[in-house]
Amino acid sequence: MVLVGLTSVVASLKVEEFQKNYKIAINERQKRSPKEDCSNSYNDCDPDSPYRPIDGTCNNLQYPTWGSAGECFLRFLSPSYSGYGDYRRSVKGGSLPEVRQVCLNIFRKKPSNQEAERASLLMTIYGQTVAHDMSQAIQEEVNIKCCEPEIYNKHCHPIKVKSDDPFFSKYNITCLDFHRSVECKACQTRNREQINMETAPLDSSIVYGSDDVRAKNVRANDGTGRLKADYTGQGELLPGGKLPSDGFCPEFHDSICFKAGDSRVNQHTTLSIFHMLFMREHNRLAFSLKKLNPHWEEERLYQEARRINIAQRQCEIYKEYLPVLLGPYNMNRFDLTLKNGPEGSKYNPTLRMGTWSEFTIAVYRLHSMVAKKIGFTSREFKNLYANPTLIRTGQTNNLLIGVSQVPSASYDHYYADDLTNYLYNWIGLKMIFGASNHYGASIVEESFNINPTMLAPSFLFIVILVASVTNWRTETRVPYGSDLCAVDMQRGRDHGLPAYVYLVSFCSEGQVNITSFDDLAPLVMTPESVDLLRQNYK
Fold first, then answer.
1. Which residues bind heme b (predicted)?
2. Which end of the chain is more exposed for a tag (fewer CB within 10 A), N or C?
3. Residue 111 burial (CB count, 10 A)
């Protein structure tokens, strides 16, 4: 709802006016990298090197730390906090409405007929790989349970849930964990800022990593230039295990989780599949380069395959993904279309390389486009969270076919309940050895797609016995999770995003100034949307 309105404002302007306002926003504070503010110099760039450094430095030789991992998120507008970094208050001085309640009132359960006209669910999931390639705001002290009543921690800002909540009240849940993003304590920052742990350029950092430790961990280093892989009957899989900073791998799950260039690889199965495909493409390229150039050594094979893989992915994004997301009109209007021929698309060193907080925390949160149905048996999206077992049991092709055929959900203000009630609904894993028939039945259903009630008790016992001997594991999921809609809103407040009306004014170069709810319709949103906002905000 909000983004649709903001898009309509931008579309009504001349491109030159928006670009002029964009340049004004890049003030002197934003032009200087936080690293440059502290060190004043960076002299490690090789202007003749054809390869990108892993950490994103040296993309711009004049400003070598622009867009590098560990830089602060940039901003179009100054952050809006109460004091230095506390959550901002409402215009009348009180607290803003609780995010879970706003989600229940506005971002209601998605109607079954709300489907995208031109996009499959595969396109939406691919978009997540683009987001992960350029941004990651890591959280403070994630091992702390923010909802414990005896715990008060400045890094926590838990999400309150009413006792009569239509879903969570069934499970006596009155609080959802929320950890604030790590503060970017760079020199000369006047407000609370946040660290971006990813590189800003589209450099396939989700494949290769954004720091030397992860980059070394995903490389085979066997003279072939390849990335690590486990070779199984299912083909090349991502290597098993995880690094200390990896998330989305529940307790006792380490041996079947995957390891990749990004710590979020195990977030859901379809995301893991994309990571696997990018790894396979690198290894295919390295193998071909080795055949063509048998005299090349490890480092050159790796770097050349990486370079080609990055270029291919950039072409995918600009030639296939963005035209579907934005449409040909906006691609041409903002000069985003790749140019063919000798001229090509030229690098512009005057553009500020970086990731903008308003973009990654608000504009590119396309979570309403996640569909409930995934086109694969009776499973739904909530069944994919932290579930590498589906890949290890040979379901990759079925999942890819499913999400390719199922439409994406619409780009609107509805969220599927897989995101608002069941986000990351796991509590860890249990060993099958000594398990009850409940766990044996879940293995049968998960691995063989057979209704366990159709099996004879003796066969079910054999399955349990085989599982215990072969050290199989199955997951036990609780019937609830977190709420991504509430998390999205809370993250916006955590990052101090200014009120929507200020962004409208910025994008319209002051031509549109919202002073009341009546000013919103019909220019930036529908009357129905305005009524919903009026009921929840002052």
1. 367
2. C
3. 11
Burial class (CB in 10 A: 0-12, 13-18, 19+), 519: middle
Question: What is the rounded CA–CA span in Å between residue 503 and residue 513?
Answer: 10
Placement of tokens 């009348």 in the chain = 92
Cα four-point dihedral sign 514, 520, 521, 527: negative
Q: Which residue has the tokens 């607290």?
A: 95
* The residue count for the chain: 538
Using DSSP's 3-state secondary structure scheme, residue 119 falls into: strand
Write down the pTM of the prediction.
0.85
Average pLDDT (229-254) is 87
User: Taking Cα atoms as reference points, which of 227, 259, 232, 229 lies closest to residue 246?
Assistant: 259
72: nearest Cα among 33, 110, 116: 33
What lies within 8 Å, CB to CB, of 32 at 6+ separation is 188
Average pLDDT over residues 420-431: 68
Residues assigned a catalytic role: 132
Which of 258, 247, 249 has its CA nearest to residue 217?
258
Task: Give bridge partners of residue 268 from the DSSP assignment.
Answer: 385
**Residue 429 — pLDDT band, cuts 50, 70, 90?**
very low
Distances (CA, A) of 288 to 219, 300, 304: 17, 13, 11
Chain centroid to CA 97: 26
Tell me the binding residues: 367
- The helix-helix angle for 500-507 and 15-25 (nearest 10°) equals 120
Structure tokens at 137: 């705001």
Residue numbers belonging to the annotated binding site for heme b: 367
Q: Are 168 and 161 in contact, with CB atoms under 8 Å apart?
A: yes
- Terminal Cα distance for the chain, rounded: 18
